[in-house]
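Final report, section 2: Outcomes. Of the targets proposed, ABC transporter ATP-binding protein is the one most frequently requested by collaborating groups, and we therefore present its record in full.
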Amino acid sequence: MTATSLLSLESVHTHIGAYHILHGVNLEVRRGEVTMLLGRNGAGKTTTLRTIMGLWHASYGRIVFDGQVLSAPGKALSTPEIAQRGIAYVPESMGIFSDLTVKENLVLAARSARTEDDFDSRRLAWIFELFPALRKFWLYPAGKLSGGQKQMLAVARAIIEPRKLLLIDEPSKGLAPAIIHNLIAALRELKRSETTILLVEQNFAMAQALGDRVAVMDDGQVVHTGPMAELAEDEGLQQRLLGLSLASHQ
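The predicted structure is given below as tokens.
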């Protein structure tokens, strides 16, 4: 783990039942950057995020976060313990509670808040600046929000308290282009707040707009790492690693 690393995975293997999904993943996420995790469907991207978060346990290898071992042979922190160290996870399913209001979803996500009055008022105001719709629909059941508004709520839940690292799985899936543009702007603002992000994304325009570095997965391994700009400029590399051209997916 280098001095600039916030998170590193070292030869991480993950089994789910009889299936061997991750085959020795080596990955570095640098502090203060957005790292894109790309790859074909089934490459192991979601499994990597879930393994970092402790939802699935690594069967071999080490995961180190901010100088602390999260997972190693004979040691595996629980998901709540990992969250307490400053990591939040936004799954592809978003994980919001549809029958609860926007406010109630955020109260549940804030460990230090039992009611709305317990929120850090400056942080809540900042979240409303990022996602104005959440203020408008503050007392609406979350299940009645649009897809884009639900994604905003999912991210807001993850950041209602300061986090060192956000793990986000396909946030743009199914969203209209205008909503994706707003989401990109919000994630850029998060990055400016010194939040490190590891982002799985199939929308390559979004990946190019946000990514500082990229890791490409194939068959349960990281097969390429480097600057996102370098991958975005090299169509031959895109075809070899992803089987497509980013230019065709703008």
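The chain is about 35% helix and 30% strand.
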